[in-house]
């Protein structure tokens, strides 16, 4: 509101900073949210968020054509539910061949805090030829570093972090699709799933991914953060459990609904249930709404 009171003056002042190479990113305001686990959020000043949005739109126009179809985080017409449905579709295609189906799941350790600034800047420089523009992008990237390593990390809270995260792991996407020739591959942020018909192939691909991501992107996928499961056992992915004949809400998510449901969020939760097989749960929620008038 304070920025908007003198909007025109502030916009022109920001323009002059950029024009005269005087733009410096402000300090972040830090706070924490608790959604399943503690998350550290870093909020930028309004003038910096304007720059973030411009950078986001610009980089999206450059890099979006090179992203694979089955990368689903922070992209138009993609998202969590499409990622889940695509995985289910890949499972159906594999099952139709009357063979065992295995799911390899990998999760990058502390992904956002582990992104290497120099590697990220190198990837961006491949497409951004204007030195002045690149310098502003560099200023934004270097405005934050993780608590553990000075030259690493992008903050949760910046819109630019969404495009930076996708640019960074697009290198892995291309490796998995082109070099490893994995057809049934889905990624949502750092959640990686691949459908196989042999556990032996899954182990081989897992080891190659772990080596590649460490050597090329300086990221870590510990063995403890990987799993290879038969689809008949059910596979957890983005809050749902994927089975051969159904998509179920994960038990942890169900318990969260029972704990947090109230008059204001009932219809939001029912909206989530449209994306899975949840007739019994939906019936219970509607019954609770009538009995307790939530």
Strand order of the largest sheet: 4-5-3-6
Distance between the termini: 35 Å
SSE series = HHEEHHEHHHHEEHEEEEHHH
Task: Tell me, briefly, the overall form.
Answer: globular
Structural class: alpha+beta
Number of helices: 12
Residue fraction in strands: 15-25%
Radius of gyration: 22 Å
Oligomeric state of this protein = single chain
What does the main sheet amount to? 4 strands, antiparallel
The overall average pLDDT, rounded, is: 91
Q: How many DSSP-defined strands?
A: 9
Ordered list of secondary-structure elements with their pairings:
Layout: H1 2-5, H2 7-19, E1 29-35, E2 37-43, H3 46-63, H4 80-95, E3 102-107, H5 111-114, H6 117-125, H7 131-141, H8 159-179, E4 185-188, E5 191-196, H9 199-217, E6 226-230, E7 235-237, E8 240-243, E9 246-249, H10 251-260, H11 266-273, H12 279-292
Antiparallel strand pairs: 1-2, 3-5, 3-6, 4-5, 7-8, 8-9
Helix pairs in contact: 3-8, 6-7, 8-9
Report on the structure:
The chain has 294 residues and is an alpha+beta fold. Helix content is 50%, strand content 16%. The protein contains twelve helices and nine strands. Strands 4-5-3-6 form a four-stranded antiparallel beta sheet, with helices on both faces. It has a three-stranded antiparallel beta sheet with strand order 7-8-9. Strand 7 (235-237) and strand 8 form a beta hairpin. It is globular and about 65 Å long. The model has no long low-confidence stretch (mean pLDDT 91).
């Amino acid at each position: 509101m304070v920025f908007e009171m003198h909007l025109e003056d502030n916009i022109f002042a920001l323009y002059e900073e950029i024009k005269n190479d005087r733009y410096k990113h402000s300090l972040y305001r830090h706070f924490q949210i608790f959604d399943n686990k503690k998350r550290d959020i870093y909020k930028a000043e309004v003038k910096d968020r304007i720059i973030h949005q411009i950078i986001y739109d610009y980089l999206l126009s450059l890099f979006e054509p090179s992203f694979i179809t089955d990368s689903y985080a922070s992209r138009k017409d993609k998202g969590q539910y499409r990622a889940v449905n695509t995985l289910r579709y890949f499972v159906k295609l594999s099952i139709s061949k009357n063979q065992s189906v295995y799911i390899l799941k990998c999760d990058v350790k502390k992904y956002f805090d582990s992104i290497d600034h120099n590697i990220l800047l190198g990837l961006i420089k491949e497409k951004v030829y204007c030195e002045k523009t690149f310098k502003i992008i560099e200023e934004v990237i270097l405005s934050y570093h993780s608590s553990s390593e000075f030259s690493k990390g992008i903050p949760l809270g910046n819109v630019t972090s969404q495009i930076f995260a996708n640019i960074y792991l697009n290198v892995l996407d291309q490796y998995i699709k082109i070099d490893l020739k994995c057809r049934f591959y889905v990624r949502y942020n750092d959640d990686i799933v691949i459908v196989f018909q042999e556990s032996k192939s899954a182990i081989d691909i897992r080891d190659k991914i772990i080596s590649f991501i460490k050597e090329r992107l300086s990221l870590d996928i510990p063995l403890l953060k990987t799993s290879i499961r038969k689809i008949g056992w059910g596979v957890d992915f983005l809050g749902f459990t994927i089975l051969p004949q159904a998509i179920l809400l994960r038990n942890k998510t169900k318990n969260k609904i029972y704990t947090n449901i109230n008059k204001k969020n009932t219809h939001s939760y029912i909206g989530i249930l449209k994306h899975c097989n949840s007739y019994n749960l939906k019936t219970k929620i509607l019954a609770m709404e009538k009995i307790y008038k939530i």
